[in-house]
Amino acid sequence: MSLANKLAEERRARLAAERLLEQKQAELHAANRKLGLHARALSHEITETRAEVQTVRNENQRVKSDLSVAYQKIEIAERRLWHSIQTIEDGFAFFDADSRMIAANDAWLAAFDGVEAVRPGASYIEILQVITEEGIVNIGDMSPHAWRERMLDRWQGPAPEPEVIRLWNGHYIRLTDRRGAGGDMVSLVQNITATIRYEKELKEARRRAEAANRAKSAFLANMSHEIRTPMNGVVGMADLLMEGSLDDEQQLYVNTIKHSAEALLVIINDVLDYSRIEADRLVLHPEPFDLERCIHELVTLMQAHARDRGIDLLVDYDLFLPTRFIGDPGRIRQILTNLVGNAVKFTEAGHVMIRVTGMQASEGAEADIRVTIEDTGIGIPPDKLDHIFGEFNQADDAQSRKFEGSGLGLAISRKLVRLMGGDLWVESEQGRGSTFGLSLPLPSVEAGMSEETRPDPALTRALVVEPHDTCRALLERQLGALGMRVTTCADACAALDLVAANAPDLVICDHHMPGMDGFELATALRAGGYAMHVIVLSSNSGSAAQDPAYGDVRAVLQKPVVRRDLITALAALSAPDPVIASAGDGCGMDRAPVTPRAMRVLAAEDNKTNRLVFSKMVQTLDIDLTFAENGREAVALFQSVVPDIVFMDISMPEMDGKDATRAIRMIEANTGGHVPIVAMTAHAMSGDDADIFAAGLDHYLPKPLKRAAIVEHITAAADPALRPPERAAAQVAG
Ligand code: ADP
Prior knowledge:
By secondary structure, this protein is of the alpha/beta class. It folds into five domains: about 1-85; about 90-190, 2-Layer Sandwich (Beta-Lactamase), CATH 3.30.450.20; about 285-445, Histidine kinase-like ATPase, C-terminal domain (Heat Shock Protein 90), CATH 3.30.565; about 460-575, Response regulator (Rossmann fold, 3-Layer(aba) Sandwich), CATH 3.40.50.2300; about 600-734, Rossmann fold.
């Protein structure tokens, strides 16, 4: 190869090398630039990471500081809480779900006399064990084991009942334990020694007060006995004096003696009743009785007084309500007498209406009897409506003084009604009147009206002649309820016109009517050729029998009319021929005439004055009266006289009334029969009546004796085969 070629080749090679070098340099440059960029990015990243690390460090620092504050707060709260728990006087402890004590305050630990074993960490069973072993608790008659078992059972229950424990030192603690949601138990211990001591003192004070109250009641009862015995003489003799011939002045003196003595007795009885009820010594004597009759009897007694004051006293006894119930008739009469007496006393014009309604589920079941006593009197201010039921309270002291009264009547009545399971209330509008209402749950002894006492269905039309609007409306309703068509009018003249137009089967008319009275109307009807039945209602049925026209009427009924009497009289009208001429023969009694004997009454009474009073009280009766002067004589006379009824004084020499009665009942156990024996006593404690009834006496009459009560008992014992002791009030003529 030529040199030139060689040189050329070298040149080419040098050029190629130079180009490669340039290329490599360019590549190196590019790599350098990339490296620079990367290094910058890396340095940026490092800076950012450092900043983040710093932030996290700061955050940590803050959290740490917050935590330390929170810890401090918790510590303070816990300290305060524990301080509070330590400060309260009651013991406080809590146990974990395994019944191990977590903590307890000093009071809790002290309750167990600070025994060392009772401490946090101890289990409940261990604690029970320690306190029985150390005798910290007074467990009474129980064995320690049984006591622990009982306490453990209680503790393990879901909601343990509070438990009172007596400690060795006589202190009492009450344990109250409550389980929390996680099974923890909080246990409270309260020292109730002071409360228990206070309760004991209260009980003792109450016992002493009750004993004093009983002593007071016994004293009152004794006093009442002491007062009643001479009062029997005063009232009885005043009664007898009044029957003699006295001039006007003497009559006035005797009247005053009698009324003052009776007023005094009412007050004695009220005070005595009240003290008995207060001492829980008033005992009710339930027996079958006729409520309607009881109401009518008391209305009859009060009628004269109401009439003197110009007030109508009316009774509306629900026609379909039974009349016989089981209750204490004496007490029911007392309540009604008080309410009706008040109504008459506080009413100057208008009327007093006694309404009786009731509900009864079935025969023999308890009936819910409602009695309301409405008056059109002075009323009671609204703010006094409750006050008047308090003791010695009157609605308006100045006003009531004008009316007299002890202010005890309503308090006693309400207590009596509540004792019977009922209630007594009042509604009133001042100046317009008052309504006293009373509810009484009374078992009835019979169903309502029976079929045989319903009037003959042939009696369809009745005419009521009655001047008084309310009475007329009542009769109309009662007769209407018996299925009759009723026409009404206010006087005899209107009646004569209506008879001509309606031809009624029955005329019921009032006795005293303006113009023509009831008997004159009957006579006028007979004279006009009418043969319908005429029944006269009279507020004095006894004297009505003396009326010359008595023969023209079928019956005279005492007003206000006892519904039973009305129904009985109507049922007796069922004879098909109501013509008067045949009515007299219609009795159907063609038995041989016999002369019945009079009733024999034996009365045992040691006091001479009281024997005289008794004999005078029954002198108008058609009876044979024999006296015994002591119990022994009473028993002997019982066998020789064979009385139909015995009145027996209780306190008598030789043999008292109770022993005499026991002896008589023993005689009867052999001979058979049961003669009613009525106690007469000036003792008024209810415990005494229990004794009296236990001795075999049937009834009880407090002294001073009332003529009406004696007569009532004699009449009740009367045998229809004997001569009636007195003429009955309601008379059926013809
Ligand atoms: P007393 O009638 O003996 O004062 P009560 O306890 O029976 O005692 O009655 C208390 C008071 O209630 C009466 O004084 C009277 O103010 C008032 N009161 C009772 N009933 C009536 C009545 N029907 N109308 C108006 N006030 C009455």
